[in-house]
UniProtKB/TrEMBL annotation:
Lineage: Eukaryota, Metazoa, Chordata, Craniata, Vertebrata
GO molecular function: exonuclease activity; RNA binding
InterPro entries: Nucleotide-bd_a/b_plait_sf, RBD_domain_sf, REX1-like_exo, REXO1/3/4-like, Ribonucl_H, RNaseH-like_sf, RNaseH_sf, RRM_dom
Keywords: Exonuclease, Hydrolase, Nuclease
A GO cellular component annotation in the UniProt record: nucleus
Xref: Gene3D superfamilies: 3.30.70.330, Ribonuclease H-like superfamily/Ribonuclease H (3.30.420.10)
Chain segments carrying region Disordered: 1-31
Segments forming domain RRM: 535-604, 630-699
Protein name: RNA exonuclease 5
Ranges where the Exonuclease domain occurs: 235-393
Underlying gene: REXO5
Cleavable signal peptide: none
Domain of life: Eukaryota
Length: 785
């Protein structure tokens, strides 16, 4: 499903929005503080995820990005996750990750009604890919960090000097020894070298998520065409991009390219292809008014870059991977200044900091709205040129880590460039006390757990004794406080007492394992239940009923999977199987007791064991906060495009996103869409307008895109009828008790969390003999006391 966020226009023909929903939609007042008689708003953290889209799958490394920013924030140069922004991160009280092993996306749909507290507490939900063998390591980043045992060296190696350091003028022997352990010296040595020495290696390109040929994520990316052999005389080009947040994630809005002489050869504003959720004006300087007249698109920029860059061009940037991702281009000859100037424990300095300390230049000034990409591109270029010209020893002597710590002390000030250039080498001695004896600095970026540990914060991991993660050396060797328990109930009790005082906690619960046959049985039952819910029967019709006429009428409610005549009845009935649940419900609400093809018909669902609770389930899905402010619209005569929908709904107020579904099983352009509004009140007003104007039909949304995709992909190898009926009953009772227990645990845990605690509940999924089971995630910040 494609997703758009703009001002749309028509919709609703049924009465699916109640007074209780109006109450729920009222915005609670923000916390206020009274200072000197004045009322001031107190900032509270909140989430802005981009989940209203067709591809609502969040990868494990993206979860790690979110956790890293939530725990470390800007203070430790952690970047915002591209798929979810955390506003006012520094006001977070803590971060909690709760894992329920063996559970998957399947469980949530099968026991939707039983997860009462989980649905009430967690509005933001997303699909996860099947888990890797190192699932927990992928969340906390230890799958990328170098294992501890690969970093250790013997004492003699620790105290050895790199050649040439001991002979530096004015350097004491001990200072030279300590300087030899500087991460820049460890990586590049002490001698000046050509630019080819500072290019990212293939391993670094992979570990830093640079777009590479052959990856599924970059199948649609464009190559820069710069494939010639790079030499030390190859030209350098500084690149910087500014992005905005759209319903598909970060997208390019401004690009600047600077040549080796510092001349800006490209400075273009770019209009994103998708609906903009946030212009990120504070950082980009871009506003709606600025982009309004812009016609340049991403493909235009890609073509121009390909013409500007020579075959052996080397791109220089600060965290350049993000710029190339935004450009959707593949270019592997790069110098990344965030890695080139990396400090202790893999610390990455901000470009503003490096420009001031190394170049003596002020960029990204506070009194200027947004960053200037040409200014930033030139700064990154000059930083790389400085490093190549002066060599790693000169850069190590700048003592960037010491200056950074000074800035972050209370009342700390930024030393001027002329002062930092003359810092005595003996000041580097502070490194000696910070580096563990008999251990060298890790070559790769420190893991999230290591970063938290180095910042003096305690990380708590609570699990059962037989947890598989404990057997993983990348987890077992990490600096955290591990509390081992003998049962899940003990994990719960310890968590309730320990987590509120811990800034970062991981809780792991282990539940019973199911056989592949039982999993297949559950999949078959869930699929059959939704299939029955999306099927309606209409009639009675006359003997000579026109099927085309009936189909045309029922298509107004939504996409039809199949349509057939029921021949066992005295008068013909039509069985209509829809592709989405909203279409079936809309047909029941708007076509029942109407005249179709000259017949007065009833529209109804077939009452079966699987649909006995259908009405209750529909009500629960309508009231689910995940669907709050979302409308389903159908009845378009022509296949839809995103541009048409933007124009069609441009007059409606407070539209945040438009979702244009793409059903791979039907393989036809969609004639229905979903509209997301900023409030329920706006959705109600839009629904009334659609009902009163035009031929479109609308109702409150019931389903999310993660369910659509799951139903499309799910296949069962054994028909439901072949499963032994007694086994289904006994297995179902056990699973029902398990799910209720999980929901109870979540309620109790959430109650113990402090206000402003970020919590992620993860069902990891499973790789079973019957096929992979995708995981499922829930996310919320506790708002109440």
């Amino acid at each position: 499903m494609a997703n758009k966020s703009f001002n749309p226009r028509k919709r609703h023909s049924s009465e699916g929005i109640t007074k209780s929903e109006h109450k729920r939609n009222r915005v609670e007042p923000r916390s206020r503080l009274k200072i000197n008689g004045s009322m001031l708003q107190k900032k509270t953290p909140r989430l802005s995820p981009a989940l209203f889209r067709d591809d609502c799958e969040i990868r494990h490394k993206q979860i790690h990005e979110l956790l890293r920013y939530a725990a470390l924030g800007k203070e430790y140069n952690a970047p915002q996750a591209s798929w979810c922004h955390i506003h006012h991160q520094k006001h977070l009280k803590g971060v909690v990750v709760v894992l329920f092993q063996e559970l998957s996306q399947l469980y949530f749909y099968k026991f939707y009604m039983h997860f009462r507290h989980l649905r009430r507490l967690f509005k933001h939900r997303f699909r996860l890919p099947p888990p890797p063998s190192d699932f927990i390591s992928s969340l906390v980043g230890t799958d990328r960090a170098a294992p501890t045992n690969t970093m250790t060296q013997n004492s003699d190696s620790y105290h050895g000097c790199s050649p040439g350091l001991a002979d530096l003028p004015g350097a004491s022997a001990i200072a030279a020894k300590v300087l030899s352990l500087h991460p820049i010296i460890q990586k590049y040595g002490v001698q000046k070298q050509g630019l080819t020495r500072y290019l990212l290696t293939a391993e670094e390109l992979t570990s830093q998520d640079y777009p590479l040929t052959g990856s599924l994520d970059t199948a649609h990316f464009v190559s820069s065409g710069c494939v010639a052999q790079v030499t030390d005389s190859s030209p350098l080009f500084g690149l910087d991009c500014e992005m905005c947040l759209t319903d598909k994630g970060s997208e390019l809005t401004w690009i600047s390219l600077v040549d080796a002489d510092g001349q800006c050869i490209m400075d273009e504003l770019v209009k994103p292809d998708n609906i903009i959720l946030n212009y990120m004006t504070r950082f980009s300087g871009i506003t709606k008014e600025i982009l309004l007249p812009v016609k340049t698109k991403l493909k235009d920029v890609q073509e121009r870059i390909k013409t500007l860059l020579p075959p052996d061009a080397v791109l220089v940037g600060h965290s350049l991977c993000k710029d190339l991702q935004a450009l959707q281009m593949i270019h592997t000859n790069v110098i990344d200044t965030s890695l080139l100037f990396a400090g202790e424990f893999g610390r990455r300095f901000r470009l503003k900091f490096l420009a001031q300390v190394v170049l003596g230049r002020e960029i990204q000034c506070e009194d200027v709205l947004g960053h200037n990409p040409s200014e930033d591109a030139k700064a990154t270029l000059n930083l790389a040129q400085y490093f190549i010209l002066h060599g790693p020893t000169k850069v190590a002597q700048l003592n960037l880590d010491g200056i950074f710590r000074t800035m972050n002390r209370p009342n700390g000030t930024m030393p001027l460039q002329e002062d930092t250039a003359s810092i005595p080498l003996d000041q580097v001695l502070h490194l000696k006390n910070m580096i563990p004896r008999k251990s060298a600095l890790p070559a790769k970026e420190a893991s999230l757990l290591e970063s938290l540990h180095s910042s003096g914060r305690k990380v708590t991991y609570i699990s059962k004794l037989d947890s598989s993660a404990i057997k993983d050396a990348r987890i077992a060797d990490q600096p955290f406080h591990h509390i081992q328990c003998i049962s899940d109930e003990e994990v719960l009790e310890r968590a309730c007492s320990v987590v509120p005082a811990s800034p970062f906690s991981v809780l792991e619960f282990c539940h019973m394992k199911m056989s592949s046959e039982s999993i297949e049985q559950m999949k078959a039952k869930v699929k059959a239940k939704f299939a029955d819910m999306m099927t309606v029967f209409a009639g009675p019709f006359k003997k000579n009923v026109c099927i085309k006429t009936v189909k045309r009428v029922f298509l107004c409610c939504g996409p039809i999977h199949s349509l057939g005549v029921v021949s066992e009845t005295f008068q013909p009935f039509i069985c209509v199987k829809y592709c989405v649940l909203e279409a079936a419900q809309l047909a029941l609400e708007s076509l029942n007791e109407t005249c179709v093809d000259g017949s007065h018909i009833k529209v109804q669902r077939l009452l079966t064991q699987k649909t006995l609770e259908c009405e209750d389930l529909i009500r629960e899905m309508e009231d689910d906060q995940e669907n709050e402010g979302v409308l389903y619209v159908s009845g378009f005569r022509e296949p839809l495009t995103e541009e048409f929908l933007q124009q069609e709904f441009s007059h409606l107020q407070d539209i945040k996103a438009i979702l244009l579904p793409k059903n791979e099983t039907v393989r036809k352009p969609a004639r229905h869409c979903y509209l997301k509004f900023g409030s329920m009140q706006s959705a109600v007003q839009a629904a009334e307008h659609i009902r009163e104007h035009g031929e479109l039909r609308s109702r409150k949304a019931l389903t999310a895109s993660h369910l659509h995709r799951w139903l499309e992909e799910m296949e069962t190898s054994v028909p439901l009828e072949q499963f032994p009926f007694p086994e289904r009953i006994s297995q179902g009772k056990n699973l029902e008790a398990l799910v209720k227990n999980v929901d109870r645990k979540i309620k109790r845990l959430f109650k113990t969390f402090e206000r402003n605690t970020l919590c992620l509940v993860l069902f990891p999924g499973k790789n079973s003999a019957s096929g992979p089971l995708p995981g499922f995630g829930f996310m919320a910040i506790k708002e109440g006391s």
